[in-house]
TrEMBL record:
This is TIGR00266 family protein. InterPro entries: AIM24, AIM24_sf, Trp_RNA-bd_attenuator-like_dom. It comes from the Archaea. Signal peptide: none annotated. Pfam families: AIM24.
């Protein structure tokens, strides 16, 4: 399977070039277009309970679409928000993805939710992250551009919680509070994630939480 990513980083479009017999699994609503010879199957991946856990706790779609090529063809996918797309090759090591950043992946990649404890709860990332594991390409999306950062063993790097896209399983992860409680509640910069290498992390240059914080007070009120 070959891929191209066009119009990056603002309005990225992922084009997958599929050979006969190849298949890719994508989030519901990600499909933009496809050529002849594509079969589409919509299913609750992992059964009812697995899909509920992924949807309610992991923030992803209850249903996933599997696109199978009956001949050489192409499929285009795009994320729901203006932003970037990046490809990552899984080779057996887990990859942890924040809610909403999984776009698509090879059919053989296993997907589950991973409990993150209080650290992700207080970090605003939800109690669960998506855990991808197996062999094959995974495609991640963002709000804004994607910035990659490789950490050496023992190297620390701190990121605002709203700017995390994904990180490798070898990377340590801890949420910290910047300043005191007043700073946490009122400054908008109170909670950060400190990663410890070795491993790679993916960041997004814009934050959905920051957008909502700016937008909601400007919406008309009925009062």
């Amino acid at each position: 399977m070959r891929h191209d990513i066009d119009y990056s980083p603002s309005y990225s479009l992922l084009t997958l070039h599929l050979d006969r017999g190849e298949a890719v699994r994508a989030e519901a609503g990600a499909m933009v277009s496809y050529g002849p010879g594509v079969d589409i199957e919509t299913q609750a991946r992992g059964g009812l309970l697995g899909s509920l856990k992924r949807s309610v706790l992991g923030g992803e779609s209850f249903f996933l679409n599997t696109f199978s090529a009956q001949e050489s063809t192409e499929l285009t996918l795009a994320p729901p928000l203006p932003g970037d797309v990046v490809a990552h090759e899984l080779a057996g090591e887990p990859l942890f993805v924040q809610s909403g950043s999984y776009l698509a992946g090879d059919e053989d990649i296993e997907m589950d939710t991973e409990f993150g404890g209080g650290r992700t709860f207080f970090g605003g990332e939800g109690l669960f992250l998506l855990r991808l594991e197996g062999h094959g390409q995974a495609y991640l999306s963002s709000y804004g551009a994607i910035h990659e950062r490789d950490l050496a063993a023992g190297e620390e790097y701190t990121v605002d919680t709203g700017h995390i896209v994904a990180f490798e399983g070898s990377t340590g992860f801890e949420v910290e509070r910047v300043g005191g409680l007043k700073s946490t509640l009122f400054s908008g910069e109170g909670l950060v994630c400190t990663f410890t290498g070795p491993g790679r992390i993916w960041l997004q240059t814009r934050s959905e939480d920051a957008l909502l914080s700016w937008l909601v007070p400007k919406l008309p009120s009925n009062e």
